[in-house]
Amino acid sequence: MEPYASLINDLKQKTEKTLKHLKEQLGSIRTGRASPTLVDTIRVDYYGTPTPLHQIAHISVPEPRQLLIKPFDGSPQVTKDIEKAIQKSDLGLNPQSDGKMLRLSMPPLSGEQRHKLVAKVKDLIEQNRVALRNERRDANKLADQMKKDGKLTEDLCKKAHDAIDKELKVVEAKLEESFRTKSKEILEE
Known about the structure:
The protein has 189 residues and is an alpha+beta fold. It has 5 helices and 6 strands. A hairpin with a 2-residue loop joins strand 1 and strand 2.
């Protein structure tokens, strides 16, 4: 095993965290269809504690453009708290409540809205790309430090830099694929 293997493993763990974070960010961006991940980032004031919506309610998709949110605790106050949290969110949706459950209807997106959402996705991808570049820079600095401390030879340091670049190219390809997939979801009618 190469002496810099732990360095590459650390880099892989960091890039996996970055990709997971991106997936969460992209899940909260609206497309033409309803998806439970759309409300994943919403926090509800549940008895004084900000709680993720999915922990206090069952979220289902009865129709392609509708979310049904049914609180586990059937109290009308919890339903009102969920309604407030959804209205405060940046989703731009207004829930209909019958006192026991909420319905979120997704109106069709206009062409302009779709293009704004694609631009937002592009910005998120770029932010994560910057984070990946920072992780690569840190890994390269660590490899250089290992060479300086005598833990790596010149050749092994070069191999480490190459392995770091190779890993980042793989992750950048995943970022690009995420962008294409999400953009396609947003732009399809």
